[in-house]
Each structure stands twice: as C-alpha cells, then as structure tokens.
C-alpha cells in the first residue's frame, strides 16, 4: 500500500459529507493560509486520505486544489460531487467519470458569432485503466448505501463552466450541447482542478460525478425528489473505491518533490572531453542529470542543511497524513535535534555524533520508502563535506 494520501475535494457540504462517511480516524489539518482539511484513512484501512471543501466555481477549486497538492504531495487528486446530465441516455443517479474536462467558456466573439476556444485536459492513462477495471469488476458497489439499486458508471467528457445550467432551450444551453456534443454532464469545478493538476506533472487527477439533474429546467423537481444526496452517495462510493485501488499500486513515478531533488543531486556527474591535434570539443554528453557547469569544475558535496530541512518537512507531512505515529515522530525529531546541534559545532567530533544520530534515525524510518533514502542522502552529504 502506498503511504502517501489520496486527496478528495468537493464543492458542496452535501458532497463533503457523502465522502466523509467512508473515512475514519479523522483529524483536522490547518493550512497556514486558513484552509481546513480533514485527514485520516478509508474506514477499511485501505488508503490514507485528505478531504477538503473548495466551494462553487472553477477559480476557488483551482486555488485550493493547488494548496492541497502542495500541502499533502498526494499520489492522486479526485474531485467528487454532483452534475447535470446533458443527454437523455445518462440516467439520474448514474456515475460519470471524466475522460476529458472541457473549460467551455473559452472563446472569441466575432461579427458572425461566438467561436469556441476551449481548454481540454485528459485523464491520465493509468488512472483511466484503473477506473475501467474497477467498473468491470463491480467491487466498488460494496460501498453503495443501497446495493439493490446499482447505478451505471459512464466514461466520457465533462463540461465545466461558471454558470448553473437549468434549461434545454436557452441560447447558452443550445450552444453547449451543440459545441460540446460528446460531453455527458455539465458542472462548475472540474476545469479548475484539472488546471492545478496539469501544473503538477505526474499527478493523476480524476473527476467523479453523480448525476442529480438533467440541466433542462427540471432541477427543482429532481432536487425535491432527493436526487442530490442519492447521486453523490453513488459518486462517493466509486471515488473512494478508486482511491483504494490507486493506493495499492506501485507508483515508481509519483515521488515526493524532495526525493526527486535528492536523487537528482546523487546523479550529478562530470564529463571530461579529450581532443587531439587540432580538434576541439565543445560539449559532449549522453544523459545529463542535475546541474551542468561549463568552464569550471562542479561543486563537490551536497548541502546537508538543505537536505535536513527537506527531511523535517517530509517527516512533518508523514505525521500529518498518519504514515508515522506520534511516538516515532517524537523519536525522529529528537534524533534530528541531535544532528542539528552536533553539526553546529563544526568539529570532527560533532560530525561523528551527527552520523550516529542519523544512523539511529534511519533505523526508525527503515520501513518508510520515501523517508529512509532522504536520511541516506544527508549521511552522504556529511561524508562528502569531510
């Protein structure tokens, strides 16, 4: 099981509550900018989770999605909620998994009419494969509140704009259906979340929506028939099952930013070019990792202080998402304090004390695939500086 969390974001309190029912061990996490998240795990223990509420609209969704990505470094980002169906074949209560997200308000206004210039984001291949497998297996239905009424799961584009569409005959409604005639549903947040995920490479982003109305003027009727809570319960069941599936798969490409930095530093190497007689060599290289310097030798060693700061940050994040318990965190912090104090003396004896504390720390974090290598990087840095 992957120890990094899956982040699920919702727009409405109703949607938040539907996802929250599947979680356990929840505690409040305060972001420094004031945003409150809840972190815990799926009730069956299959996945670490972080849950957040973004409100309505693509703009706040984008800002808070980026905030969640930076705070938790998740292995995947899901957006869960309700949407309006654009076509009759999409039934109330059906679950729609977005294969593409259209930001449909982009365009240019010309004398002969409005011309669409949408932005489009596509779901990652691996996430799509996992979602299709989950739908075929039917295992996700065990999370449904009513297993006697199993909804269809549909895969297709979702259109995301800035208006609540509740008409089949308005100019806006006709334009959307004509211009985005392959979109299954319409809503107001997916484009913002997709944009934030796009700026964070290798982060799978999946939008899961339950159909609560038909976006055709009957929203008051379907809301009165209690379709919103029914639809979002279906979406939450599929989304949390998808989160569990993603967490159980190896994610060799989905690493923390700090670990990527450490690996890049370890792979830095120099290339010596030799030319004879009148030949001259400018730059000759194969694969290049890390920094490249021309005309001067590369700096030796790593910055142990910077690596220690990154390690502390990742350690705090692991505590936040529940990857390590309080006792382990306290013991690790104690060893880090010894390391910092010992290195401050700038003596050989101080370095030796720091190395001993780091070895103890590595033993504490031995089972944590993302933290133990970072301790090794610090040890390498101190040795290189000797």
From TrEMBL:
Superkingdom of this protein's organism: Bacteria
Annotated Nucleoside phosphorylase domain residues: 5-242
InterPro entries assigned: Nucleoside_phosphorylase_d (IPR000845), Nucleoside_phosphorylase_sf (IPR035994)
Pfam families in UniProt: PNP_UDP_1
Parts of the chain that traverse the membrane: none
CDD domains xrefs: MTAN
Protein name, entry field: 5'-methylthioadenosine/S-adenosylhomocysteine nucleosidase
Organism: Nonomuraea roseola
Source taxonomy: Bacteria, Bacillati, Actinomycetota, Actinomycetes, Streptosporangiales
